[in-house]
Each structure stands twice: as structure tokens, then as C-alpha cells.
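Hello K.,

You asked for the raw outputs rather than the summary table, so here they are, unedited. I folded two proteins back to back in the same session to keep the settings identical. This is the first:
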Amino acid sequence: MSAHLLAPRSDRVAAPSHRLLERGRPPARWLIRRWYDVRVHHPERFPAEGPVVVAGNHVGFVDGPLMAIFAPRPVHALTKLEMFDGALGWFLRRSGQIPLDRTNADPAAVRTAVRVLREGRAVGVFPEGTRGPGDLTTIRSGAAYLALVTGAPVVPLTFLGTREPGGTSSSLPPRGARLDVVVGRPMPVDAVSWPRTRDHVRLTSAALRAHMRSGLADALEETGRSLPGPLPQGDRDE
């Protein structure tokens, strides 16, 4: 039986486009590096093939583009629905990013992400759910759930330097800033067939948070960087 027929079924959702994502990454990397000093650490840790759940801490506005463009393999990132308006929305869809309603249950986004993983590609998630200190104090369960459904390993990405201390949620680093993207060690997750219980998801999510926080500490020590601290009072990542 096709994996797409397993619960949750993923045969009734369209697979995101990936041609522009794959072909556009080299020129996009060149262009971004004309503006920023982007350094990717330990790309060899990223699995060369097969499904991968990419889980990043969320510090600044450019984290999503950096994940899609600089991860060692193309990443279809779950991206907040509000970003899919106008020309930007057209580009995001053409580049294979997955719209996500953060305020309501979004089974279509989940099934689309599951389809991508079942086809052996990479899905990106920001488990903190919003931009902020990036310290992984709390995370949501989406990354753990996707890994449990598909048996995909979770690869942490740590973003450092993508927001200046005191910067707002929509601020950009100054030109020439060093941006560090640290690939963490993969966390293997065994697939659990339906019905998956809340305890399965809760325990896996707790293990993932501990794994990501350990990787964050290693990344801070290795790069000599620090996190930017909380957003300014009253600022929210809408």
C-alpha cells in the first residue's frame, strides 16, 4: 500500500512545487552573500537523502529564507499564512513553501508536509511558533508529530545573528553582518503507526526540545555568539 494512504492520508493534497526551490538556491545564495556574511556550520551532519524534519530556533525575519536557501538540501518550510499575499505569496508558493494557519488547526498544511516527507524531501518547522529570543524555552509539537508520522529524523538548525539585540520582529541585520547557521546532530525518531497518542507526541516533543537546547548551547559556544534577547516591549510577531 502506498504510504500516502496511511493516516493521515496525503494522497489528496498537492505536492508543493520544488523546481524553483532547487534551481533558485545557488543564485539566491550568491545574492544574499553579497549583502551578508553567511556561514553554514557542519553541513555534513545533514542526511544526504531521505525525509528530514528541519527544526529551527526563531530569532529574526530572515530565518525562513536562510532555512530554505542555505540548508544543505532544499527545504519546504511551513510559513505563516499572512505571508502569502500578493507577489510575495506567489513567489513563496512557486518556491514550494507551505502556508500554515497558526491560529487554527490546519490539517491541509499538515497533510502537505507529510506528503513532502513521504516523498523523501525535507520540511522545515520553527517549533517556537513565532520570532523571539530563540532560546527554545517552549516549543510546539508540530515537528515531533511530523517525525512520528513519517519516521523522519529531526535536524536542528540554530540561527544566530539574524536579529540585533533590541531589534524588532521585522528588523533586518545591518549590511555585512555575520549570520551563522549551525546544523545540529540529527535526532532519530521511530515512526509510530496510527493511532498515535498524545503521550507519544508529548514525550517526543520533550525529547526534541532537550536535543535542540543542547545543540543551541553547543552552537553558542562554537561560534562565540549570543542570542539577541527578547523582542522590545509591545512588539509581537504577527
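The second followed immediately with the same parameters:
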Amino acid sequence: MNKTLTSVLLGAGLAVSSVQAFADISANVSLTSDYRFRGISQSAEDFAIQGGIDWFNDAGFFAGAWASNVDFYPTGDADDDGASVELDLYAGYAGAINDDVAYDVTVYRYMYPGDDINQDYNEIALGVDYGPVRVAYWYADDYLNLGESTQYLELNYSMELPQEFGLNFHVGHSFGDAFDDTSLLGLEDYTDYSISLTKTWAELDFELAYLDTDLDGSFEVESDHGANQDTFVLTVSKSF
């Protein structure tokens, strides 16, 4: 999922009081050492090239698209779905209750062009920002087109450090009907968390993150496809 979307939401949300509405477009491209989504590798712990484009106006509306390469299964695996690209489309509204509290509602469409099965699905997200704290709730009624729902609740905290470094804390919990039958996803409900250090230098954004989950036992994947154990991820991105 597009990590730069949160900044777009905040920008749109804080601008809703402007009398004159206008639209703006931004774009981003990034290279990451491992594409992790809610603590689980989507690229078999290999590098991923990602990019997106966002449209937003100061009335609070926004829309965008984001894409990344993915690798879910080893070549020749019986469950291989043939997916090599993830494409996310999204649209929503962001607003501000006052100078301290902002909110956003976003609808996502996750697609995997060229895959061998239909696993595209929709998800809705509700977020609230209070200063450096962000809380968000996500709901997909038909996750991966499997007929079962998933939910995700996350808490984030960001702080500024000396020399214009940033420090971000994240914890999230995945749960819902799709996790009740562990044979469906090969997972039980779980918690993921991360700590990341950020810095902008030479017009590039750098992020070094430590990520882990509480998955263990038969659900633990140490490396390669679907890795869900502790790791460091380095991401370099550029916004336009």
C-alpha cells in the first residue's frame, strides 16, 4: 500500500477551510529492500520498485493509484497465482475537525493484473489524526475474493528528532473471519509492529525500519516467500 498517502490525506484535510478550491497532483517513486504489508513480505524478501500518483484538492477529496512488483509463491508451486504486480486504486475524503484533529475515509481497490485467479478485492479505511498520533481501522468484506472478511486496527506515533530526523512507531492487529479458519490463509490473527528512522537528504527520503510480528509455531516464516519474522527494511523514495 502507498505509504505516502497519509501525507496527502493530512494535506487535504488541513486545507478544507480554504474558500477557493483547487486541485493538485503529486507523484512518488521508491526502491525498497523488501515490500512488507502488515508485517508480511510481498516480494519474497527481494527488492521492490514502487510508484504512485495522487490527485487532491483543498475541498478534501483525493484519488490515486499505486503499484509494486510482488512475488507470493516460488516458481512451480502448486498454489502459485501468477501475480507479479500489485495495483492499488483509491479515492476518499479528508477533513479537519479543528486545528488538532483531522480525519479521512478511503476506499481501496487492490488488483493483481495478469494473475491466474481472480483475487482482486475492496477495502475501506477510516483514520483519525491527533497531533503526532494516528489511529486507523480497515475492513475488507471479501478478502482476496475468498468470501471472508478481514479487519485491521493500527496505532501510529511520529516524533521529530534533532538534525531533521524522524522516528515513527507502529503497531497493528489483523483479525476477522478469514483468520478464523487457519487453513484459508495459512495464518491466525496476529499483531505486527515496527520502528522506523527517517531522513530527507539530497531531495531523497530515506527510511530504515525494523519490523516484526508475533506469529510463531507453524505460522512462523523465517525467510523468503511470505516471511513474517523480524527484519530491517531500507526504503529510498522521491516525491514530485
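The first strand starts at residue 23 and ends at 32.

Happy to rerun anything if the numbers look odd on your end.

Regards,
P.
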